[in-house]
């Protein structure tokens, strides 16, 4: 596998010239623009030199479980220690608990590198980040002071325990129980698909667990959130007695082999001791407030894995000699063949549009506390970042395999691993079908389309100064508005048309940001050519999805029972 | 993994009411229409009951190599014996050598079942079939009489040895040597990616090997084809002395684990003894004459694997209960959710269009000896069958994983295997980029578009009697003609636009056949609904590819060096 190269120029261009990261300086006292270059440069070194070499090991040397204890891929512990030593886990965390209080957008830039370098590994600090967010936002001061500093430093990691065998997309079906006991609760139940549910890289693991109190209302309004440490803390605040919370088996998965996916048993004996986070029966809302970040992170994973696959394909295409082209008697590298160059540009154009959206959404998310406008925009972007980007990532990793020809199918080449790893992305953290429903239901319908209208207005204003493709872009913008209206007024059936609407929105927003990038005085030739390619080859897909939205216009018009 | 169900009704409908298999009775004396039902019914039993249960074993119990001998997945030998005992290997072979001289279209129908049931296994008899074709068409009478009967009965299997490390898509770079020696030749060289290159299921293995004679012209005009048996025959025609042709290693692949992919060494010692097939230096042409069948077979594999994945998704969607829908307080199976039903119909519609094309192309291929028109049509269909169908198969297997949610990512569920297996299909037997070049180069340009014009004319005539979607279909037909002209007259750059043209042609031809099916008095409701879905959701993609063809209008407009 060729070496990973952090795409510093592209990341900086997106942050500075499309997302306008300078707007964050006034809201983040610790951040000034001088910091961007050194952080990107250190992130590049860390991900390229320390993280990337462990990627293949994770694919081959799977985590093992023995006596209810999981041992991770041997090569990972040193990487994790380097991550903590470099304080990479502390970037966006509050200073009060040892964090650097920097914008999340910077953390996203750092995470892009780590996720490209080793997706399976990256999930451990990422899930910890999610747990930190939930605790910080919802837990009481005591829990925060007790748990956050060690989680932020990376000494302890965190997990999110939502799914049960009968409660996946539908969390209302959660059965895990929480019985009040003294100051705390005893948790009983089984959770599945728990990422990094157990391992030996950290001194403690802080599980956040959704469970039901006795007599809680049925459905999602009866779910509470609990903090359940692997080791209960002793009087000095250090890990002491083992809690009754164990990984009991590991899943055998298509990809991300290095990430232990655990079945977790809480309360096989006296019950796992847990502490309430936030209010009783408000657990799902606590989860939702942190879901924007988690979902955007999965979109980022799509970008990151696809970027790595693209780089491998690019390297291979300039290394592999095969065939001749018109006007050259010598055999050429395959990158010179029309169809291979088509595939390379297809990947590169998609990636730049995805990256632009990723950093625009992350800066927006950093501003969401400033006013409702930024919050709304973040709400709107999140399902598109997660859904559209992880869909595109599937195409990119598959195309990267294709560029390799027969070698792409050989595991040692390494690109097949990325295809396997990437396949989880449209599924976890809410399937893309759920993202689409979130977009048309919660995000579009909740404010009767006002948020989208504001976005469309902003895009149309920007389009006024586009040098090329202005009319084409505006026509697509009109279609997006028509599609949104059709869904809002019920002409299109929201539940069925949701996916097409999400994809359409993604392609249009991607075009906006590519064209916007072309307006920058710093734009380079490759961005302009990628934009040309995008407008001619990716944007037209929005038409297909528009046709889809329009034609889903009768309730139950496609009854699956007819297929039986 | 739920049980595989051979899609008897769909296969019969495509063969009888779209492909018009009755036209074959006058050209195949052994075939009459009464045979269709019993053959499909027996094929269903064989694939469902005898082949399908071995599929997962092949994924887990990989072939092994020891002392230059490959041992296949243990469960496979009994399946292979059942296949020979059932005479499934003899269907289309000439009677003279023990075959049944039935139409190839019937064999395709049988193979669909076997490939759905176990793709990795199916490649062994399939490659044998390819070798039989090459020998039958090009070898002298003596070779035919000596080798064909045992290959047709299945006692001996066959392989195709084309690829070398530096000669993949570009066979002109082949280096393997053939030195004349008495009546035969001594072969020296290494071949890679040799499917079922060695195993213990048959008494002998007949390798067909591309190699160069001394002083052969450079390039593809200096390649000859040789028959190289694993065991040389003794005087009674039985396998005797071991030939100097050995598998020396096995590839570790993403999928089709049960199919041993060998590195073959010919002539590590005194040279592997081989016999010339056809004329000297005409080896590549010998390969090409059988490539139509082999390439159509890979298209069939796309259909077959995708069908299996779709069935698993359908079963899961009607088994898994999750969430509620409007108007029902009870939790429902996920097939009732709009987005899941969208995915199921997307798969089902694509599959029916693919199946229609598959059987139309195979009946056409059976008629290609009758007149030049059928030969031309077969030439045109072949790259579309291979390219378009294997591209669609990727989307279908991935969608089938998606329907399974988190369970789709767990290997034990079984659908992930199909995603891994399917990924080879756009690559082998000529990558889809090569198929596209074949379509616009050899097939379109060779007769200045006459063959395509005839097909477009036939489609437009059929469209006259379409009840719905006539105008929409005709508009797409016009676009296809415009795109073909643009490529032929150089307005679009053929090499770069080829892929988009191939995909566009696939979607339009698929629409034609779906709509044609709707004209049949035997059409059922599900076919009609699938056609509606296809026209509204799949056909619009042709517009995107049309935009692609048009916009690739400048030579070298996307230079990949800009991406470095």
From TrEMBL, chains A, B:
It comes from the Bacteria. It comes from Rhodanobacter aciditrophus. Its cofactor is FAD. Residues 281-439 form the Acyl-CoA dehydrogenase/oxidase C-terminal domain. Residues 74-154 form the Acyl-CoA dehydrogenase/oxidase N-terminal domain. Residues 463-551 form the Acetyl-CoA dehydrogenase-like C-terminal domain. It is an enzyme of class 1 (oxidoreductase). Pfam families: Acyl-CoA_dh_1, Acyl-CoA_dh_C, Acyl-CoA_dh_M, Acyl-CoA_dh_N. Residues 160-267 form the Acyl-CoA oxidase/dehydrogenase middle domain. Keywords: FAD, Flavoprotein, Oxidoreductase. Its EC number is 1.3.8.-. SUPFAM superfamilies: Acyl-CoA dehydrogenase C-terminal domain-like (SSF47203), Acyl-CoA dehydrogenase NM domain-like (SSF56645). This is Acyl-CoA dehydrogenase. Belongs to the acyl-CoA dehydrogenase family. Gene3D superfamilies: Acyl-CoA dehydrogenase/oxidase, N-terminal domain (1.10.540.10), Butyryl-CoA Dehydrogenase, subunit A, domain 2 (2.40.110.10), Butyryl-CoA Dehydrogenase, subunit A, domain 3 (1.20.140.10). One of its GO terms (molecular function) is oxidoreductase activity.
């Amino acid at each position: 596998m060729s070496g990973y190269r952090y795409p510093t120029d592209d990341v900086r261009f997106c942050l500075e010239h499309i997302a306008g990261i300078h707007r964050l300086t006034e809201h983040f006292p610790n951040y000034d623009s001088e910091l961007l270059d050194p952080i990107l440069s250190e992130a590049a070194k860390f991900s390229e030199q320390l993280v990337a070499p462990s990627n293949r090991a994770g694919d081959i040397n799977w985590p093992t479980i023995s006596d209810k204890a999981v041992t991770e891929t041997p090569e990972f512990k040193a990487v994790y220690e380097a991550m903590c030593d470099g304080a990479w886990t502390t970037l966006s965390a509050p200073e009060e608990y040892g964090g650097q209080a920097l914008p999340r957008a910077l953390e996203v830039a750092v995470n892009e590198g780590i996720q490209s370098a080793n997706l399976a590994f990256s999930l451990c600090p990422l899930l910890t980040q999610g747990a930190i967010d939930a605790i910080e936002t919802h837990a009481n001061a005591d829990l925060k002071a007790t748990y956050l500093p060690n989680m932020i430093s990376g000494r302890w990691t965190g997990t999110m325990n939502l799914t049960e065998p009968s409660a996946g997309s539908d969390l209302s079906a959660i059965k895990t129980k929480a019985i009040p006991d003294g100051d705390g609760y005893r948790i009983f139940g089984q959770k599945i698909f728990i990422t990094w549910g157990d391992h030996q890289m950290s001194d403690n693991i802080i599980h956040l667990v959704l469970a039901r109190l006795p007599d809680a209302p049925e459905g999602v309004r009866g779910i509470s959130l609990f903090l359940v440490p692997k080791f209960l803390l002793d009087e000095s605040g250090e890990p002491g007695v083992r809690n009754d919370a164990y990984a009991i088996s590991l899943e055998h998965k298509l990809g991300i082999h290095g990430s232990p996916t655990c079945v977790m048993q809480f309360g096989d004996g006296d019950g796992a001791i847990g502490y309430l986070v936030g209010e009783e029966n408000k657990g799902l809302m606590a989860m939702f407030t942190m879901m924007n970040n988690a979902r955007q992170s999965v979109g980022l994973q799509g970008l990151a894995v696809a970027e790595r696959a693209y780089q491998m394909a690019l390297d291979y295409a300039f290394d592999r000699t095969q065939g001749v082209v018109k006007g050259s008697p010598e055999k050429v590298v395959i990158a010179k063949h029309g169809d291979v160059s088509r595939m390379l540009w297809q990947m590169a154009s998609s990636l730049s549009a995805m990256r632009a959206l990723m950093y625009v959404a992350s800066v927006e998310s950093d501003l969401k506390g400033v006013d409702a406008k930024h919050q709304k925009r973040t709400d709107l972007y999140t399902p598109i970042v997660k859904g559209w980007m992880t869909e595109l990532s599937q195409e990119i990793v598959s195309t990267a395999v294709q560029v390799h020809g027969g070698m792409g199918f050989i595991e040692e080449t390494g690109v097949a691993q990325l295809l396997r790893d990437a396949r989880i992305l449209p599924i976890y953290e809410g399937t893309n079908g759920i993202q689409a429903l979130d977009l048309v239901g919660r995000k579009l319908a909740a404010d009767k389309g006002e948020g989208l209208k504001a976005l469309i207005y902003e895009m149309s204003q920007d389009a006024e100064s586009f040098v090329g493709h202005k009319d084409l872009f505006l026509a697509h913008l009109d279609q997006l508005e028509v599609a949104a209206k059709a869904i809002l007024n019920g002409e299109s059936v929201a539940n069925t048309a949701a996916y097409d609407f999400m994809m359409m929105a993604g392609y249009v927003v991607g075009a906006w940001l590519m064209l916007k990038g072309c307006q920058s005085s710093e734009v380079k030739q490759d961005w302009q050519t990628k934009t040309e390619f995008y407008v001619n080859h990716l944007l037209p897909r929005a038409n297909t999805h528009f046709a889809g939205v329009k034609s889903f216009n009768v309730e139950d018009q496609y009854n699956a029972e007819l297929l039986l």
